[in-house]
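Slide 14.
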Amino acid sequence: MAISGMTRAENSRDSGKKQTLLQRWIVNNLGILILIIIVLLLIFVYAIQTFYYASARQKLTAELTSIVNILSRYAQDTETNLSPEMRSTFESFSAKDKMELMAVNVKGRVVLTSSGFSPSADTSLPDYESILQGGDGYWVGTAENNEKIMAVCMDISSFSTEYSAVRVVTSLTKVDGSITTVMIVATAICAAILLLLIVTGIYFVGSIIKPIAQVSNSAGKFAKGDFSTRIEYEGNDEIGDLCTAINHMADELSNAENMKNEFISSVSHELRTPLTAIKGWAETIYTETDPTTIRKGMNVIISETERLSQMVEELLDFSRMQSGHFTLQKATMDILAELGDAVLIYMDKAAREGIKISYDEPEMLPFVYGDKNRIRQVFINIIDNAVKYSDVGGHVHIEATEQKGNVVVSVTDTGCGIKASDLPKIKTKFYKPNHTRRGSGIGLAVADEIIAAHGGKLEISSTEGVGTTVTIILPPEEKETV
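Slide 15: predicted structure.
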């Protein structure tokens, strides 16, 4: 049922339409940028058109104002007839090549123009009608020949009885042409900016997608147990940090996998050796009648059984630590008593193997608040390692002292030592620097966890070919203050 539910969930996820980062960038970012650019372009075109039309209107108004002022002066001269002067002014209009000057009579018809050609009687004059209604006398529209024009009209009825207004009209063809040119240039600039944004955006998104694809591909291989893949990324940014972290994770997983395989191989070997000895001596004892041989076989069986029991306890402790069920039964304890028991256990065993153990026991040390069984387990493990990695004729020196209020126990051997490259990893679970010696590779890691749980430290110093010193530092029991 769980597999079926997981399959349905995967099928549902796969059936959904996948949206790539590039698609999301195009929809969410590029689409908004295009909309903003279009809006800004329209605002710019409107502003340019308004500016050009306002400039044209201002020019027309200035010309027309100048003409009206001249006609007004003529009208004020009682000896001058306005009509002939007005015709003369229209005929000599200097800007007739750019605009046309017109006079409108009291009936609303154009009766005088600077070009000499008057429009038809039914021609609409919206700017003149605006004047009659009290407006501003301004109009933009289309002439009879479908040409776009601008007209400005001013009232002169205050000083003329024959004419009611004058107007000036100009073509907007050149103005619209200039506006079109500016609009084309602005559109080209916006298009270039947009193209640049698209190119740089696609490049940027691609620089993100490529390492993410590598991360996804590598994660899939990691899930299948292949830790050989590494992500190549040269950028010095957050993605580079992620790739570096994943590559580091792959290294750690690879190391853990190698250590696990070595651990399985080592444990299998460690289990096979005592089991073979036990089985062999059991078969021998079963058929043997010599008391000496039987006693020797029983000693081997007992020794190998203890060895198996120690390995099983280490494995169980490791399992409890991994599952979070590792507990301590703490109480006030005498560290010297537990250390003395551990030394006594290995004194005869070391002597049989041709290794000397010396122990400098002080008269008194501060009491420690801890689990005496676990602390004794640590001492046994450390001393066992010292004996195990020493050769015949070697020497193991054990010393317990008080330093800066702490209890310090050091175990020094004259064994094979540890390589400098192996020393930082010596307390790692499953790690064995020397595969020629017996052991599962987790005893020291368990010991380190136990000491750390007591608030102490386990330090190791070693020189290859000279020996190793393991130092255990434990804080004393805190005394209650009254």
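Speaker note: The CA atoms of residues 340 and 362 lie 11 Å apart.
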